[in-house]
Amino acid sequence: MDFRTPGVDALAARVIPDQHFVLSADDARDVYFADTRMLDAKQLAHNRYRTNPRSLTDHLIEALCLRGTEELLDLGCGNGFVLEHIRPHLASGHIVGLDIAPGVLDAARHRLAGVATPCDWLEGSADDLSAFADSSFDRVTAIYMAHYVPDLPRCFTEVRRVLRPGGRFLLCTDRPDSMVEMWDVHYTAMREMNAPEHLFRATPKARISLTNGAEQLAPHFTSVETRTWQDQLQFADPEPFLAFYRGQNHCCASSKPGQDLPAEFFTELEERVRGKVQAAIDEDGYFALTKYTGAFICS
Q1: Domain-embedded: residue 1
Q2: Taking Cα atoms as reference points, which of 204, 178, 183, 215 lies closest to residue 294?
Q3: Which residues, including other chains, have CB under 8 Å from residue 49's CB and lie 6 or more apart?
Q4: Whole-prediction pTM value?
Q5: Sign of CA dihedral 126, 129, 131, 134
Q6: What is d(CA 228, CA 137) in angstroms, rounded to the nearest whole number?
Q7: The domain that contains 239 carries what CATH number?
Q8: What pLDDT was estimated at residue 92?
Q9: Which backbone phi and psi does 171 adopt, to 5 degrees?
């Protein structure tokens, strides 16, 4: 399924800036993932409004190539949404979820409570795996979280250390121009409001994306395979999109510490974005977000 068109490519070339937001692990722990609301909103939208019949977890499970007995470490496990779907494929295996944010880690613990597959939960950073011995895991995953990790080279060195011979490390991320339609309406609305220039930055995932991730991983792994897929979220009502947009922290504008923007700014921003989304729905029947995403399979 190919959603890529010359029009979307031209939009991305015009809209996506070179500089991206840089978000620290402290931001992730204390602001973004202090609770599960942001994750819940994003996961709901990515599943309910997708048009690719294969879900994210379908792609991940295929890439993991599980037999059912593996020891799996999930870095930045969040609220356990992905692990809940992987877990039936590890019926005789073992899952360890690690996250820096205690709020979402507790949600993961409750989500998988009572399953027969043994699950352990550990608070910590993905660039410090000293709690684990060498060759402890058959699979390690990092699902849309690597851009938060303070020291990526150290993280990859540690992953290689704890990964068993023949194991797989799966790192999922996006292209920087993924969901460019959202960034377009966001930037257009902010320009109308004469917003501060420092807010016009790309997604933090540009730090390690599908365009630059392989070169960062290559020094640490013998094999790095890039596997991509596409999807398109289609919203026939602006309100579910706005819930998703808030879950993205208004494209990072509303939760980067130190922005000091008043609540009125975001009220006006949302109203302007709502109008642009409604206009697209009136013209096309839906507002589309074209997703360019994928994974690096490392061994």
Answers
A1: no
A2: 178
A3: 233, 234, 235, 240
A4: 0.95
A5: positive
A6: 25
A7: 3.40.50.150
A8: 97
A9: -115, 120
